[in-house]
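General statements about sequence and structure are easier to judge against a single worked case. In the encoding step, the backbone of a single protein was reduced to a row of integers, each denoting a local shape. The record that follows shows the chain in one-letter code together with its fold in token form.
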Amino acid sequence: MLNGNPLVRFLWFWAANTIVLWVAAQVFPDVRFSGWQALLVSGLLFGLVNATLKPILVILTAPITVVTLGLFLLVINALMLLFTSWLVPGFQVGGFWRALLVALFISVFLFLVNQLFGFSKKS
């Protein structure tokens, strides 16, 4: 399904990011949106930040990621979430430690959704 049309792929990942942010806002009281517009923009920007800025940070922080056995990737995910909340008016995350917990939740949730719907990369 996602191997075909790039527009469908883009819309799926935008929807997935938006849904996971909405679920995180329902689970964590420190994650708030002022309205559905802020949620949609946050989903879009969160996906764009993860697609562009995150790979650069992963490469730059590879040594510390290796030393921490990959746990530093959660810090990078939290920073991407905080950066998105800084860019989008109406989207709030309650500080770094809450963002770290929410980033862990988002990672696990997206992994489960990808496994459930068969969107994980297969050889």
In short: Residues 93 and 115 are 27 Å apart (CA to CA). Residues 36-60 form the longest helix (25 residues). The first strand starts at residue 32 and ends at 33. The chain is about 75% helix and 5% strand.
